[in-house]
Amino acid sequence: MSQYQIKLQPEQNDQQPTLHQAKQVLGFIPNMYRNMVNAPSLLESYLFSYDAFRNNSDFTAAEQELIFLTISLDNSCEYCLAAHSMIADKMSGLDRHIVKALLNAELLPDARLEALKIFTQAMLSSRGRPNQYDAEAFFAAGFNDRQILDIVLAIAVKTLSNYSNHLFDTEADQPFAAYLRPQSA
């Protein structure tokens, strides 16, 4: 059976308040935002939560990117994988060898980031019920209980964007297109 696709059209009015603000901040309006704004509260919730995770979590920018990439990989969201691969490369300082290893389901060459990836995967596969072993390995890598809650927030953020992108089959924006994986280009 084929996947259902939402029949709503992307918002083209750049003066819509949330889109106008996004354009001022980013310099362009991502296709994902144009789709999500069909339900304004969805986009507003996404932007608020994304900003909260970026500005208030106890993770470095590179660790945040790894979390977002791990979740998007688990959810098979090609749009977000491309977007966060670009952000990792250009803004967050996550080494491209780490991104490549993650996308190829290989062991990450950094033990702390590998522990973060594994714990994020455990949170996803257990639906927020990691076992004691998963938690102990996470803590042994230098992470803490507060950061588990930060991962919950990241999962919520990426669920909003990943699922919306699935429903719209969102086309990658020009800045992200070069980061699409070959099979999805």
Describe this structure in words.
This protein is mainly alpha-helical. The chain has a domain at 59-184: AhpD-like. The chain contains ten helices and no strands. It has helices at residues 17-26, 31-36, 40-56, 61-74, 78-92, 96-103, 111-125, 132-140, 145-168, 174-177.
Write a concise keyword list for the protein shown above:
single chain; 185 residues; mainly alpha; AhpD-like; 10 helices; globular
Brief summary:
The protein has a domain at 59-184: AhpD-like (Up-down Bundle).
Radius of gyration over C-alpha positions, nearest whole angstrom = 16 Å
The number of helices is 10
> At the third CATH level, what is the topology name of the domain at 59-184?
AhpD-like
CATH class of the domain at 59-184, named Mainly Alpha
First-to-last CA distance: 23 Å
Shape: globular
Low-confidence spans: none
Element order: H for helix, E for strand: HHHHHHHHHH
Query: How helix-rich are the residues, as a percent range?
Result: 55-70%
The number of strands is: 0
Biggest sheet overview: none
CATH architecture of the domain at 59-184: Up-down Bundle
CATH superfamily of the domain at 59-184: AhpD-like
Helix/strand/pairing class, anyone?
Answer: mainly alpha
Report the portion of residues in β strands. Answer: under 5%
Mean pLDDT: 92
Write the layout of secondary structure elements.
Elements: H1 17-26, H2 31-36, H3 40-56, H4 61-74, H5 78-92, H6 96-103, H7 111-125, H8 132-140, H9 145-168, H10 174-177
Helix pairs in contact: 3-9, 4-5, 4-7, 4-9, 7-8
